[in-house]
UniProtKB/TrEMBL annotation:
SMART domains: HTH_LACI (SM00354)
Protein name: LacI family DNA-binding transcriptional regulator
PROSITE patterns, A to Z: HTH_CROC1, HTH_LACI_1, HTH_LACI_2
GO molecular function: DNA binding
Amino acid sequence: MTIRDVAERAGVSTATVSRALSGARPVSPAVLEQVTRAAGDLGYSANGIASALRRSRTDTVGMVVPSIANPFFTALVEGVEHALQQAGRQLFLCSSRSDPALEAQRLRSLVARQVDGIIISPVHGVRSHDAVSWAAGQLPLVQVDRYVAGVDSDWVGVDDHLALRLVVDHLADLGVRTAAFVSSTLTNSSTELRVAGFQEHTARRGVAVDQVLLGEYSIDWGREAMRRLLAAGPLPDAVACADDLIALGVLQVCAETGVSVPADLLVTGFDDIPYAALSDPPLTTVRQPQDRIAGEAVRLLSAALGPDRAPPARSALAPSLVVRSSTGITPSG
């Protein structure tokens, strides 16, 4: 891959490509967009030339999340943007749509655009590895919420193991003896840690695991999972969900089929998105410290951009349990 290939794809001269990517001389916004898109599409920055051409900072940071439709990531992006604004930087936001191939393309484009650094919540624990590792070799990168193992980068997220301890202890203290867990398929670190935490802490508290149902983080999957539990026979005492969207789907089917929550079934979620407090009944859930996660991600990235870069840091922040009526507890206790 050469600069001539990029020039042909962008429909400009090789000199224009050089000026656009190096920033040595100004080009129009339209031409810059053409060149950076062509370079990203062709993976031109993968040969290391982009790093060599970086002569000044752009005060921009790229962020890649699996979905901007998920309220958790929407709030996380808002927190990162606010923290970056305070630091004098702007955000370029990309959605990978839970597609590792599209995620890799987004990363190439951000590097070609010469962002100062990248904040990413990887799609997949294995299939995202090569692209995330490559990007981390080009410029400072911080993983948030989820992480890809074996990548030389910082990470900040919630302590998923502690979160499931809070959930299971709460349910066990209420007398729950059987529980099901509804989650996404085991494709990323958060999902794996939450399933493992549920199994470990139910065993510790003597709560029998009825079923572990794996699908996706969505209301539709929560509805389908609840229908499967109903079809399987007697319901467990509780259903714990790996995120609030799943839990909202569970609550919808309970309402449709006459299953009373919490009289017949206790339900918990994870994330504490705004809808959790508005559901019927209001949802008991794990609250992630999203503003702190966002602030720490920006702090770690700023430190990595400094002259003395420290070894990669891992910051697991403590969650809290927000208890509401879906587990039989009213605001008055």
